[in-house]
UniProtKB/TrEMBL annotation:
It comes from Mycolicibacterium bacteremicum. This is 3-ketoacyl-ACP reductase. Residues 8-196 form the Ketoreductase domain. Keywords: NAD, Oxidoreductase. The keyword Oxidoreductase applies. The keyword Oxidoreductase applies. One of its GO terms (molecular function) is oxidoreductase activity. Belongs to the short-chain dehydrogenases/reductases (SDR) family. It holds the Pfam family adh_short_C2.
């Protein structure tokens, strides 16, 4: 039986764990080969640990168990040159590229008083410029045959969620970047869409944010509440949206803000 993305080759950043891993496995189940990129190192400005090289290896093993190929590279998406080299190598090994998922991201917690310019720089650098670097590395491989760029934003990027302003701003920036590219690249049949998840239980857990919401700013708790009666979505719910946007089922879908947000943005 043919999968929904049979034979497609997909770049995924932030692929060692969490939703990136889930996207890799879900796409492999539907017939894709993948290039998996992750920093595999923690950052001093980010208060929770990032993924490890063992976790990236484990994602590749899960893809292989699903019967597909995985090429891995330990790269920081902020490093444009290293990312481009990794993507070029992966494309060489897999024989081409059909899509990219800019999924790597980081989150800081803080109020207007405590948020630092260093937090701003790190979050914007990884989430926004890293997304640009990912698109920039993928596009040369897509221009001849078309393709799909899926940029992971957040419900925060639509709603304006507080207590992590750099994150919210970076995720809104991902929308602007994606819409602009969607216009610029449509003539080449390259589609560009964003995905906006509500909360999903992953390693992205800054204790400061949880503390603020429980203690000093519990009044803001309702802003994060979903309309549907669930506390959080599961990673696979987001992966199914990514799968659709990469598949040919979405061949005329571009410039979309695809919310998988349990209705949090309509409240
Ligand atoms: N978890 C949520 O509730 C939630 C909600 C909405 C959107 N998102 C977004 O979904 C995406 C995936 O997040 P997640 O929840 O799986 O978090 P996660 O922290 O578990 O995974 C993020 C991955 O990105 C990697 N990464 C971080 N910085 C990197 C860099 N500079 N270069 C390369 N890799 C890097 C990490 O090592 C990690 O493996 C992110 O863009 C995040 O902002 C998450």
């Amino acid at each position: 039986m043919s999968g929904r993305v049979e034979g497609k080759r997909v770049l995924i950043t932030g692929a060692a764990r969490g939703m990136g891993r889930s996207h890799a496995v879900r796409l492999a189940q539907e017939g894709a080969d993948v290039i998996l990129v992750d920093i595999c190192e923690s950052l001093p400005e980010i208060e929770y640990p990032l993924a490890t090289a063992d976790e990236l290896k484990e994602t590749a093993e899960l893809v292989e168990k699903a019967g597909r190929r995985a090429v891995t590279h330990v790269v920081d998406v902020r490093d444009e040159r290293a990312l481009t080299a990794a993507v070029d190598d992966g494309v060489g090994q897999l024989g081409g590229l059909d899509a990219a998922v800019a999924n790597a991201g980081v989150l800081t917690g803080g109020t207007w008083e405590t948020t630092t310019s260093q937090q701003w720089r790190t979050v914007v650098d990884v989430n926004l410029i890293g997304t640009w670097n990912t698109c920039r590395a993928a596009i040369p491989h897509l221009v001849d045959r078309g393709g799909s760029l899926v940029n992971i934003s957040s419900a925060a990027g639509i709603k304006g969620s507080p207590l992590h302003t750099p994150y919210t701003a970076s995720k809104a920036g991902v929308v602007g970047l994606s819409r602009a590219l969607a216009n610029e690249l449509a003539a080449m049949s390259i589609r560009v869409n964003t995905v906006h998840p509500t909360g999903v239980p992953t390693g992205m857990q800054p204790a400061s944010l949880h503390q603020l919401l429980h203690d000093t700013r519990s009044d803001l708790g309702p802003v994060f509440q979903n309309a549907l009666p669930i506390v959080m979505a599961e990673a696979v719910d987001i992966s199914n949206a990514v799968l659709f946007l990469i598949s040919d089922e979405a061949r005329y879908v571009t410039g979309l803000e695809f919310k998988v947000d349990a209705g949090v943005t309509i409240r």
